[in-house]
Amino acid sequence: MKKVIRMINNLGCSYTDLGCYGEDNVDYPDIAFKVANVVIKGDSERGNLICSTGIDTNIAANKIRGIRVALYRYAFSALRARKLNNTNIPYLGAKVVEEKYFRI
């Protein structure tokens, strides 16, 4: 997670972190709904979700009308999902993707 935040900062992108701040388990639907609602309300153009596997939070966020979450493992997948499917929340499984794969 810290590596992703560092990458976002290095790219000069602004963001609001709505997630957990430690290694303890959290109630992932709560975070997914927070991020999705920020996007739906128009407070942010897009969101981003990160969890260990890239599965659970994806399911929760996709239940919200108007949200299109795409799980990606490589930068190419994220770019294609955005371009072809107009996804508004890319989703990363942090424990299943090596850092070298999310460089563009």
Outline the secondary-structure elements.
Blueprint (H helix, E strand, L loop, with lengths): L1 H10 L16 H13 L8 E3 L4 H6 L7 E4 L2 H11 L3 E5 L11
Parallel strand pairs: 1-3, 2-3
Number of domains: 1
Named CATH architecture: 3-Layer(aba) Sandwich
For the secondary structure, the number of strands is 3
Average pLDDT number = 82
Separate helix tally:
4
And the CATH topology? Ribose 5-phosphate Isomerase B, Chain: A
Strand content: 5-15%
What portion of residues is helical?
Answer: 25-40%
Question: Can you walk me through this structure?
Answer:
The chain has helices spanning 2-11, 28-40, 56-61, 75-85; strands at residues 49-51, 69-72, 89-93. The chain has one domain: Sugar-phosphate isomerase, RpiB/LacA/LacB (Ribose 5-phosphate Isomerase B, Chain: A, 3-Layer(aba) Sandwich). The chain has 4 helices and 3 strands; from the N terminus they run H-H-E-H-E-H-E. It has a 3-stranded parallel sheet with strand order 1-3-2, sandwiched between helices.
Question: What would you say about this model in short?
Answer:
The chain is an alpha/beta fold and 104 residues long. It is 38% helix and 12% strand.
Quick tags:
3-stranded parallel sheet; 4 helices; alpha/beta; Ribose 5-phosphate Isomerase B, Chain: A; 104 residues; globular
